[in-house]
């Protein structure tokens, strides 16, 4: 009996000793280390990974916050680098339109989703959830080196397109494509810097000449507008006003034009159950032609619905509204 009790005590003691050594779950961090830089560094060494920890009331919120932390690091770096890289190129001579292109692209490129960004670990401490967002540097580097090579090839192709153009008007689109691609490349280079890598090759493109050509071509384009249909003269005046405000040259003679915009307008009553107001819908179609090549380079179609006490007043308001929308689209096309 005594031997049985002694054996039971020994077995219980051994079990307790084993549990004290192996009772912690390996996949969970120690309570004191949970979410700390030391724990993250142990799991994901800085030499191999870029990490950020997020927390939230749910696991999905914690994961989103962790990914946002890393995205914010890249966005801040890209925005800073692109602004710095373009300051020396986009000077006062480049004009407001080029500065707008750069600002638009900085916003677009800095907010691009990061490929390869994953959640490496999640856990819960009390009522709070935690997550570690992880980006493996070597894989990201290989991907971004490949992306730069692809962008360079596209830039080369667009330079060849520019060389083939016989009209200054048709040069604008490939030149703007080059600017957009170059800014995309600079954004990728900024991402590489964040994870400790330099660009794979020097900048082989004369981007400064492209930034200079675009505003120079725009300043040298003469645009003629002709419209047929309802309130044709008013539409012509509105489109011309928008172009002039955007620093484009407007001519009253088609023979002096580099670009001719042909327009057609109409308005019709819209049936409705409103006894107090009459509604009209105006439609405006614009075709933009390059005079030198005699090629249609763009088409714009807009419509607007307006209400008033009379059909004539409603149609007038609708025509004004649709003219402004279409005019803005023309400016955006050339801008």
N/C terminus separation: 98 Å
Task: Return Rg in Å.
Answer: 32 Å
Number of structural units classed as domains: 2
- In DSSP terms (H or I, runs of 4 or more residues), the helix count works out at 9
Structural class: alpha/beta
Query: What is the residue-mean pLDDT, rounded to a whole number?
Result: 84
How do the strands of the widest beta sheet line up side by side?
A: 5-4-6-7-8
Order of helices and strands: HHEHHEEHHHEHEEEEH
Let me know the largest β-sheet. Answer: 5 strands, mixed
Share of helical residues = 40-55%
List unreliable stretches of 5+ residues.
5-12, 14-28, 31-35
Range of strand content? 15-25%
What overall form do the CA principal axes indicate?
flat
State the total count of DSSP E strands. 8
Report on the architecture of this protein.
With 335 residues, the chain is α/β, with parallel strands linked by helices. The protein has two domains: 28-220, no CATH class; 221-334, Lipoprotein like domain (Double Stranded RNA Binding Domain). The protein has nine helices and eight strands. It has helices at residues 2-22, 37-43, 59-87, 95-110, 137-164, 168-194, 207-219, 232-245, 311-334; strands at residues 49-56, 118-125, 128-136, 222-229, 249-250, 259-270, 278-290, 295-308. The strands form two sheets. Strands 5-4-6-7-8 form a five-stranded mixed β-sheet, covered by helices on one side. Strands 1-3-2 form a three-stranded antiparallel β-sheet. The radius of gyration is 32 Å and the shape is flat. The termini are far apart.
